Amino acid sequence: MNIGIFSDVYFPQKNGVSTAVKLYKEEMEKLGHNVYLFIPKYSKDYKRNEKNVFEFPAIKFLFEKEQRIALPISTDIFKIRDLNLDIIHSQDPFSMGIFAEFMSKLLKIKHVGTHHTMYEYYRNYLPLIIRPTLKQTQRVIKNWCLKLDKVISPTKNIKELLVSYGVPDEHIVVIPTGIDTEKFNKKIEWNIKEEYGILPEEKILLFVGRLGPEKNIDFLIKVFHKVSYEEKNVKLIIVGDGVERNKLEELVVELDMHDKVIFTGGQPRERVLDAYKQADLFIFASYTETQGLVVLESMAAGTPVVALGKMGVYDLLNHENAGGIMLKELNEDDFAHEIIRVLKDEKLYEKLSKNAIDFVKKNYSIEVSVNKILNVYKSLLNIDKKKNL
Description:
Rossmann fold; six-stranded parallel β-sheet; Glyco_trans_1; Glycosyltransferase; Glycosyltransferase_grp1; Glyco_trans_4-like_N
């Protein structure tokens, strides 16, 4: 098949959607498909060395500098018809998603979309004067989904939410974003303990993600403060960057934990994988995840998880033997108790670690996910063929 993937985010931007798009493209190409990626140009200075990627002029989003708003006015538009695309797959409802919808109508090609993000919880990035209400946001999501020929939801929980907005049940298929489990078998090259002067006997708690308010990282820092009273040989490493970084660093100083909490900033993908593999425990308290890709990646590395069980993360950790501890509410004492329990109980730790690896390989490998996506494409193409008979 000739597959067109349209996305407003892609590497070097570091987030779950970028990772998902790259994994989709690589796995589909392994299977012999031609995958063409349509994205905003990140910057004039960034040189991309990847085949079949079309970049469009873009401007920075005023309220979140890492985000781009594409202006699909490139001459590459005229090349799309010559690609003979069989299917279009968009990853968001913004500039490239709108462009994908336009091209699907123009070329009469089926359009699939993945609902990666809980946009309702990101309204705070817009100033009040242009910020939509919750109801307005839900209506926009519903209307966007109805324009698609099929909606892919990463979890059952998110599907139920979309149905509550008015999207028909049969219009949605649940396909989790997969993990490239093979990459977690590679030798560690980034030695975190050596770089940051962490002693061999000290344990590492890890958070990976964008430093935004919806991730509740301030809560995790306060939880870690409680943990450190009982567990002296432990450090918290925060991998990522974002609008909350200065505020979080100030909180660390206020709690007198500047020697125990390490901010690495954003890191290349290879280093992030190394971080998972060297951590003793992954901690996570976001309430906006459609799936929680970082949770899956940690589990793929054999690093147990203690996390808030909301939205997509609930669908992951709600399974028996998933390899993590799920908490229902944001309670500092409960989080701290579970973290300490896992760190102290060696048998429990080993069980969670083994279960985590097995769980991801069995249910969330990129091979399984991409095959399911390809089946969605094929079913839509078969419908078209039957109509033409």
